[in-house]
Amino acid sequence: MKKGFIILLLLLPFLSRSQTQRFVSPIEGSYGHDWKIINYVDWAADTFFKDNHCLSKSYDGHQGTDFCIRNFRKMDSGVNVYAADAGRVIFVRDGLFDRNKVSVVSRGLGNYVGIRQSGKLFTYYGHLRKNSIVVQVGDSVSAGQKLGQVGSSGNSSDPHLHFELWYDSSYYIDPFTGPCGNSHSYWLNEPSFDSSFGVWTSGMCPYSTSLDTLREEPLRRDSFYLWAPAISYWAELTGIRKEDSISIEWYTPSHTLWGSFGRRENRDWWLYYFWSELSPSVSMPEGTWQVRLIRNGNLVLQRSFFYFQSQAAIAQSEIHKWAAVHNGRQLCLKGLEPGDQWYLQDVWGKLLYQGIAEGSPVQCIESLLSNGIYFIQVRSRSGARSIEKIYW
Q: What is the CATH number of the domain that holds 284?
């Protein structure tokens, strides 16, 4: 491996900047929001590994760059992959399963596209979404042309684009610069190396979670009741470093610490899921609780949620960000914008209540409902409408 790098570095001085610094981003969106680089090319000369900035954003023998998106829900929305440079398509593989969550080396690049560029350069785009590839062998492509979409086919545990650059099909190249790597970039606008800590996304849900379910991104809730299977908080983090202390703390409506879960990390993690859960009980007081994410003693994120000890029926719109709770005595709606109209109907479509939001954070009405299924409809001032089912 290192012999290839030595020969390649000797060749670079004889290539002009216009021959090398020409690549456009191979993935749709912006860095930090839509995607992040989790692994770079491995520059270590032995069984250890290091990236081009002398850190651990790589793994042993890694020959490319991993452009990772948030999760499988983001993958399902469709994230395009683009040709980094003009060239001719030399290889296409498609049709393989694209939702792998376990790394299996023998699966290789899965669905991928190979392109030959000028200057004896070759680029490869791996782990693509099944049946998303829109080019064929022999096609000429331009820089920025769509090739397919991000998936998790092949040797992949999370949806990402694996990008490789080779010289003469013999030596792979790190297209990024760094103090422990190349001094020359292949990118027109190279993304800055990022080793900072961050919360990419987070949320709460009313059931126990696992790594697999978090990779799918659970539907978010912020209202829970006694008979919920669990009250779970989760966060997708980046830039966790060895010896970092990470914890989640749960606080009652009176701001008393109810419980916590934490750990000290024994290695660096560049993409990391962390979660904790409560088991609802009659001893938990009703009201507005808080859950806090703590790193090295510092508050990172704080989130409020409602807990109802009495049986409560809950509806929450994922699109328009409103929620409704019925606890047998009152029907309360929160998250409405001033001027929003709301309607409560039974399963036969009979209108039971209606109102107009006036701007207060929570609006409640006295409501004695018999057991059954009801529907809450919210119409915004712009005309957008959402309907959610509520059980009681």
A: 2.60.40.2550
Please tell me whether residues 303 and 318 are part of one structural domain.
no
Q: Based on the structure, what is the number of domains in the chain?
A: 3
- For 91-149, the pLDDT digits (tens) are 999 999 999 999 999 999 999 999 999 999 999 999 999 999 999 999 999 999 999 99
Could you tell me the sign of the dihedral formed by the alpha carbons of 138, 139, 140, 142, in that order?
Answer: negative
The pTM assigned to this predicted structure is 0.78
Rounded Cα–Cα distance for residues 36 and 65 (Å):
10
Mean pLDDT of 332-339: 79
- 37 and 160 within one domain: yes
**Rounded Cα–Cα distance for residues 188 and 195 (Å):** 21
Q: Which amino acid is at 355?
A: G
Phi and psi, residue 380, nearest 5° = -80, 170
Q: Which of 275, 292, 309 is the last residue of a domain?
A: 309
**Cα–Cα distance between 381 and 290 in angstroms, integer?**
31
Contacts of 48 (CB under 8 A, 6+ apart): 60
The Cα-based distances of 57 to 139, 191, 215, 238 in angstroms read 34, 15, 20, 11
CA distances to 74, 89, 128, 225, 248 from 218, in Å = 12, 38, 23, 18, 18
Question: Considering 309, 339, 363, which residue would you say is the last residue of a domain?
Answer: 309
Is 181 contained in some domain? no
Q: Give the pLDDT confidence score for residue 1 in this predicted structure.
A: 33
Q: Are residues 202 and 304 in the same domain?
A: yes
Helix (H, G, I), strand (E, B) or coil at 94: coil
Same domain, 10 and 82: yes
Domain identity same for 85 and 33: yes
Spatial separation of the C-alpha atoms in residues 260 and 75, rounded to whole Å: 32
Assign residue 177 a region (left: φ > 0; alpha: ψ between -120 and 50; beta: otherwise): beta
pLDDT at 3: 34
Domain of 55 in residue numbering reads as: 2-173
